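Shipment paperwork, digital attachment
Item: protein structure file
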Amino acid sequence: MAAGSVGGDDLVTVVFLVGLLAVLVSVSVVDLRERRIPNRLTYPTMFVCIALVITGAPATPALVGAAVFSTTLLVPHLLRPDAMGFGDVKLALILGFAIGWVAAGWSEAVVAVGWTVALSSAVGLVGAAVWRRRSIPFGPALSIGSTITIVATLA
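Attachment content:
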């Protein structure tokens, strides 16, 4: 777990990831019920990410992951805001940060984000097929795909 630790302190990484998991569960529940990702969950989590960088987190991989993942979802949001909400973009920023945090370097963060986009899309497609809908909330799929990527990166 050393890749994402601050000053060699794996406890910081564990606390961050457990807290993130709690946020992802909350985001998923709200998104499934209301089809939106609330700012009251994303903004404080973004603040934690910024604080971690300021206190010595591995800034380059974390910031690269955040930039790549959020940009990947920003483009569809700008093209079709009715299909991809800005809450998904903000969530991708947080998730990209976490993926970069546990990655060994910036190039690994980019690859991991790519896998996460693929996994999240697959989860979303399965969800749409199961619920027989053309449109479903994407927050839960992003959460599942990112969790799988983070666990696989740490394994």
